[in-house]
Design a protein that fits this description.
By secondary structure, the protein is mainly α. It is built from 25 helices and no strands. The chain folds into two domains: 196 residues, Alpha/alpha barrel (Glycosyltransferase), CATH 1.50.10.130; 294 residues, Farnesyl Diphosphate Synthase, CATH 1.10.600.10.
Length: 520
Amino acid sequence: MDILYAKQAVLLKEAKHIMKKLISEDPMESLCMVDLIQRLGIEHHFQEHIEAALEKQHFIVITDPIDFVQSHQLDEVALSFRLLRQGGYSVNADIFERLKKNKVQFREAYGEDVKSLIAVYESAQLSIGEEDTSLEDLGQLSRELLHSWLSRNHHHHEAQYVAISLQQPLHHNLPRFVDKTILLRNFNPDKESVCFMELAEINSCIVRLMNQHEGLQVSKWWKGEAMSKEPKFAEYEALKWYMWSMACFTDPSFSDQRLELTKPISLVYIIDDIFDVYGTLDQLILFTDAVKRWELTGTECLPEFMKNCLSALYEITNALAEKIYKKHGLNPINTLKKSWVQLLNASLEGAHWSDSGELPKSEEYLKHATVSTGVHVVLVHSFFLFHQNITKETLAILDDFPDIIYSVAKILRLCDDLEGHKNKNQSGFDGSYIECYMREHQETSAEDAERHVEELISMEWKRLNRQVLGRDQQFPSSFTKFCLSAARMVPLMYHYRTNPSLSNLHQHVKSIANAGVAHM
């Protein structure tokens, strides 16, 4: 590891010198380098440089937007828009208005320009709603033209790049798990970019070794838990829970946070199985009541595995609350407890529906099923693990299930339900939003219902964008970026469509698991 860190330090010094020079001499080229850095997943090393590059480019764009658009290639305009908005800068989508007005001319000028079309399509993923009509229209047109291009160029060397860009736009993806030969297709291996690519290789090695070490610690923790001795839970894979922490706490220095967050994530998964598979309705009512009271008294008649789960829930939550209290002087225990009660109440409502055999209305289902994902529990815990300045006002916002958390949870719920419904092995009632929706709208085909859900997912992404991309937010950017990473993780864990990144994620997890076997 010492050798890797030494090489990293040398390359980092050179890379920062390159960035500083580009920012000073060629703002557009510095922005291209920001794009490369983010695709390589090494932006944590360059936060100051990225901010300086964006600030300079923002000044250029807003000084004379018309001149900027006219004096730059379309792919450069789209890249500037995407990176500036992603960085929280106010940039109006009206810069695309002139291009949108003449669609025939746009088709003629850019129908074969794959680079520009992809850049526009990628930018359109950062839409925040109605005020971005120009952007959305141009993004849809670019999507159509790219599909048309693919239909004519199956064997073209750019075909795979185009197909994956359409299927997995950058804003909905985690660069770390994307095939770099695809992700870096448009970057020339010149002397400057090679320095950053070598740095990314070393960073990847360091992170992989770190993840392997953390994976061992997670497995050791789980094996020490009483729940792991239960036959029902004996085959559970702790690394599956750790994947969420690993993907969302991206900064290598956040090792303790990744380990700590894996614990409540494990409980979310286990509680989900208790409600879906193992518990009777009477047991689940007692279980929920015990969480509300935050004590084991009165749970004597519950099976041992449920009591072990409750004990672990109290222990893990109380330990985190105490740690936060010692650091900040404000105890978040009531907020943490409330997040668990919200989860249990929603899960119990689902258990009542299952027991009665009656389907709720689709909107009622979605309201409770979004909460029963447990996403809010994970995000609330993650907020405190960032060790931000915690105030009573912040706790009140978290207690109220803020929009940013709700959007991530809703995206997960809808994606999970969509994948479940598309599963060819699925038969009968699947308890999904689509099932409830089709019962209400009996004239709707399964294909139309699935398209409806895809549209709901798209709309929720726009709401999430509004929460994440603005500068005047309720929460620190570190937390909003965590929420965005959680949403990006959803199609990897609940692959409602074929996802090329899955093999890369599985390979990474396999390397962690193999490291665990080697240490046994």
